[in-house]
Amino acid sequence: MKNLLFFFLFLAQYHLISQTFPEINEDKLPYQENSAIFDSIGMHPNRYMGQIWVLDSSISYDMVQDEMVPGTKRTVINRNGLGELTSELWQYFDRYSQTWNNRFLREVKYYTPGQPEMKVTYPWMVPNSKWNEEPISLIRFDKSGNQIETFHRDVNFEGTYFNSGYRYLDVYDVNNNKTEMVSQYWYETEQDWENEFRIQNVYDQNNQLITIKMADWTGDHWQEYLLVEKTYNENGMLINSLEKEWDYMNDKWVKKYLYTYSYNNSGKITEELKQKWDNNNPLWVNNRLKKREYNANGLMIQEIGQYWNNDSLSWNNSVCQVYEYTNNNKILLDEFKKWKNNKWQIQYRYEYFYDQNNDLVKYLEKEYYVPEDSLLNSNQTIFIYDENDNRTEELYQFWNYETGLWMNVSRSENIYDDYNNLNQQLLQIWTNDNWNDYQRYD
Predict the structure, then answer these.
(1) With 0-12 CB in 10 A as exposed, 13-18 as middle and 19+ as buried, what is 11?
(2) Looking at residue 181, what is its pLDDT?
(3) CA 300, CA 268: separation in Å to the nearest integer?
(4) Kind of pairing, strands 73-79 and 434-441?
């Protein structure tokens, strides 16, 4: 029982760290309709609270996991006269001294109103009782809004020593096309950044990406290893993508994969063919095929993945993704199937429920279980809104197979001001048949 309780407590923490939203695998979303699904559930990659959780999920949770002590962290937020975020102060509660102690400070600087210059986060140095002048993370923008530098480093609890980390340096042309990205890692021994790999892009006069080159850092120079050449038709649609790899023995580029795309009259991709180069023959050999179907509104309703059988010289079914939508083009159903025993067998089903305002009120996940040979409930998230259409509560529950009932796991409650701005968020975990405060943002 103790292990089971710990599992659900861990699950609750994981769900809170994930913003109490349903986890959605973007790779499994429709090819060109990803943004529609994000809109359906009210999420956005740059969502304000999400930025808090991204940072908070990377700091030391071991200080509270031992006893699952609730209410051990808080964030103090400051805004300027325009309502723009200027700083966020993360603090943790020391249950022994009964005081709030600094952990991280994020500052946001702006070129002009609405145009951020950088977001920089500093760790608190416990022995020195002051902020470290070296940041733990940074996001820097140019005046066109392009993200030109991003890094994050892990730091010890004292805030004095940086461990592993990553850094990305981006370069753009006058048309705001990204022409280069350099990835670096934090070299702990030297306490400095070291090159890791590089991606260089070339565009044509229509700002279409035509060449991609990837290279690894060898210690004293860049060694290219992958080349991608893209071809477009007269309508600007990608029709071929040719991958080549570097032949170190013969010091030249050699063919590897060829991707060919077909479209319908609406410009939607209907087929994606992957072929592999056979050096022995030499010729292109079929490898993978994706087939897509769309409804009258241009939303994908089915994608079938097939693989090439060299013995029968035919395409064999592999996986299938099926989508259904509401009359307002919101995602309603998402099913993932595998081809087994000459038929499609459902593996996962994601169901979305909306109210009369087209707000998502429930997200339900079901999984296929072999012993029962059927889909069974897995987890669900319930959303509640106020009269101004603000999401005021999110309840996450896990299905108990033994009792056949939903078990509470975590909950978040949101409070808004008169201008519908989020003023406070309270995160809670269900333990001992009660809701216990875990974290609060003011």
Answers:
(1) middle
(2) 98
(3) 9
(4) parallel
Taking the C-alpha atoms of residue 62 and residue 193, their distance in angstroms, rounded to an integer, is 27
What region, left, alpha or beta, does residue 68 occupy, with left being phi > 0 and alpha being psi -120 to 50 degrees? left
Write the CB contacts of 158 (distance below 8 Å, at least 6 apart in sequence): 125, 126, 127
Query: Contact 352/41 with Cβ under 8 angstroms?
Result: yes
Examine the pLDDT at 176 and tell me if it is beyond 70: yes
HSE, side-chain direction, 13 A CA sphere, residue 270: 9
Q: For residues 151 and 139, give the distance between their C-alpha atoms in angstroms, rounded to a whole number.
A: 7
End-to-end CA distance of the chain: 35
> Degrees (nearest 5) of the Cα angle 313, 315, 321?
170
Each residue of 12-21: pLDDT tens digit?
544 544 443 3
Residue type at 80 in one-letter notation:
N
Which tokens hold the place of 375? 């889909």
The pLDDT of residue 44 is: 27
Tell which residue, 433, 430, 441, 415, has the closest CA to residue 15: 430
Q: Is the pLDDT of residue 411 over 80?
A: yes
Question: How far is 352 from 361, CA to CA, in rounded Å?
Answer: 8
CA atoms lying within 13 Å on the CB side of residue 233: 9
Return the bridge partners of 94, or none: 99
Backbone angles phi, psi at 62, to 5 degrees: -65, -15
Single pTM value for the model: 0.77
Residues in the chain: 442
What's CA 60's distance to the chain center, in Å? Answer: 21
Does the pLDDT value for residue 417 go beyond 60?
yes
Residues 72, 46 contacting (CB under 8 angstroms): no
In 3D space, the residue among 205, 221, 225, 203 whose CA is nearest the CA of residue 213 turns out to be 225
Under 8 Å between Cβ of 123 and 104 = yes
Query: Which residues have C-beta within 8 Å of that of residue 205, sequence separation ≥ 6?
Result: none
Q: Which helix (H) or strand (E) holds 86?
A: strand 85-94
Query: Burial of 242 by CB count in 10 Å (0-12 exposed, 13-18 middle, 19+ buried)?
Result: middle
Q: How many CB atoms lie within 10 A of CB 78?
A: 12
**Nearest alpha carbon to residue 110 among 132, 84, 92, 136:** 84
Model pLDDT, residue 336: 97
**d(C-alpha 114, C-alpha 82), whole Å:** 9
d(CA 292, CA 69): 49
pLDDT tens for residues 249-300? Answer: 999 999 999 999 999 999 999 999 999 999 999 999 999 999 999 999 999 9
pLDDT of amino acid 422: 85
